[in-house]
Each structure stands twice: as C-alpha cells, then as structure tokens.
Amino acid sequence: MEVSEEIKRQRRAKKMMLWFSLISLVMGFAGWTSAYIVSSKRKDWIAEIDLPFSFWISTAVILISSITFYIARRRLQREDYKAAASLLGLTALLGLTFVYLQFTGFSAMIANGYYFTGPTSSIKISYIFLIAFVHLIHLFAGLIVLAVVFYKTFKQRYAPTAILGFELGETFWHFLGLLWLYLVLFMHFVK
Q1: Which residues contact 164 (CB under 8 A, 6 or more apart)?
Q2: Is residue 110 part of a domain?
C-alpha cells in the first residue's frame, strides 16, 4: 500500500518534534553536568564519593531493556503481536526494576550520610541526587509511553508498515538508556 505524501509529511513532523524535545533534554542535562564540572573546583568539593553499586546494576538493566524494546519492534514488524507484547511487558518490568534500583541507590547514599540538602550535604551530592532524580522523572514519562505502546500492541493497533507511535516510543526509551549511561559514566569519571 502506497503511503500518501501528506502522511509522510506528518510522520516526518512527528519525528522532528521528538528530536527537538530530545535535544532540549540534552541541553538541560548538559547544563547540569557543566555546572557539576564548574562546581568541582570549589574548595568544599568532595572528590572521593563512589556511586552506589545499584546505579551500576540499573545501568545494565536499562540497556537490556532497550534491547528488549528493539526486539519487540522486530517481532511486531513480523506481525507477531503476542511476542511483541510480551517483550514490551519485559521492557516495562526492566524499567520498573531500574526505578527500584535508583531508589535503592538513593537509600544507600542516605545511609552513608549523604543528603540532598542540609548541614551534612555537599554540592557534589546535591548534583548527583538532582541529576539522577531528574533522569528518573523522565523515565516515569518513558514508562507511560511504554504503557501506551504496550496497549496498542496488545490490541493489535499497529500494522507492520504503520508503527510510527511504536518507533517514537522506542526512540525515547533508547534515548533514556543512553542518557543514563552517559550520566553514570560522567558522575563516575568526573571527580
């Protein structure tokens, strides 16, 4: 079936809107990581703080979830809706595991006496909490997108040649995974 020029334009416009949104998110996180670097020159900067181990496990979990999302699209393109929905369910479970591991990491930091604010906090810890928490908020948005994509896949509302919403959701999810990978490596290596 031939796709009309109007539909092609609408698809391009929707993809472009997503990319503009992702670029604005990159700019926001670039601002925070730049402020982190500038602040690292302060005298009260604590250089030797290791990230909680659960942050590293969550990194592996979110990267694996990108793989399951990708495989789900491949299955959908073959019209294997059941397998695609199952893989999306697994992706959601991995996303929720990521959230759990993030809160485990926050709890470990607090147990070690590192707080976001207050007399025992430091600017570095505040940045770590801020950057990780803002990413987590965006991951909640990703989980909502994933729920919509799952529902539409389960109800077989996509066709192998008409999966724009699925592709947009997948792109956003991959972006979140790559963004977290960058952030965790950044916070680990920039002392």
Answers
A1: 11, 14, 15
A2: yes
